[in-house]
From TrEMBL:
Classification via Gene3D superfamilies: Peptide methionine sulfoxide reductase (2.170.150.20)
Organism superkingdom: Bacteria
Domain MsrB residues, every copy: 38-159
Keyword Aminoacyl-tRNA synthetase: no
Signal peptide stretch: 1-28
Protein name in UniProt: peptide-methionine (R)-S-oxide reductase
Keyword Methyltransferase applies: no
Keywords assigned by UniProt, alphabetized: Oxidoreductase, Signal, Zinc
Organism: Pseudomonas aestuarii
Reaction(s) this enzyme catalyzes, per UniProt: L-methionyl-[protein] + [thioredoxin]-disulfide + H2O = L-methionyl-(R)-S-oxide-[protein] + [thioredoxin]-dithiol
SUPFAM superfamilies: Mss4-like
Single GO MF descriptor: peptide-methionine (R)-S-oxide reductase activity
């Protein structure tokens, strides 16, 4: 690599968040946030689900049974049971995690994540603030969005079954 190319690359580093950002479509806030201590969530969830939802861990790719789920239904937050995705928006992304083309409007919130140095858009359940996954702009048309979700952060409720009452 030539020195000039290297220096030009370094000069672009401050603008990387602008170049790599994916601004999610605005979503109206329709959910009242839930305040619950992390110790209470720890009692209700498996250690794996707690680590992903409230310590922002990531499950191993290909480990979720939800990758193979093809039935009609609703994907809800594994912590507070807020509906997050409709099965009609699920697709096979080839990433090893359940992926969706869009979420239920107003049921997610966003923040920037720099854990891999490159900025990413992280999304959380709007009700309990549980970490779900990341939003990328490499999904299928027409929206071009890939909502890459940790399977352990979701529960699937088949169509025709009643959704469980929201946890309070």
């Amino acid at each position: 690599m030539k020195r000039r190319s290297f220096l030009q690359g370094i000069a672009l580093l401050p603008s990387l968040p602008l170049l790599a950002s994916h601004a999610p479509r605005s979503q109206a806030a329709t959910v009242v946030p839930l305040t619950k201590a992390h110790s209470e969530w720890r009692e209700l969830l498996s250690p794996e689900a707690y680590a992903v939802l409230f310590e922002e861990d990531t499950e191993r790719a290909g480990s979720s049974p939800l990758n193979q789920e093809k039935r009609a239904g609703t994907y809800i937050c594994a912590a507070c049971y807020l509906p997050l995705f409709d099965s009609q928006h699920k697709y096979e992304s080839g990433t090893g995690w359940p992926s969706f083309t869009q979420a239920i409007a107003g049921h997610t919130e966003f923040k920037r994540d720099f854990k891999l140095i490159f900025p990413r858009t992280e999304y959380h359940c709007a009700r309990c603030e549980g970490h779900q996954g990341h939003l990328f702009n490499d999904g299928p048309p027409p929206r071009g969005e890939r909502w890459c979700n940790n399977g352990v952060a979701l529960r699937f409720i088949p169509q025709g079954e009643a959704l469980p009452a929201l946890r309070s």
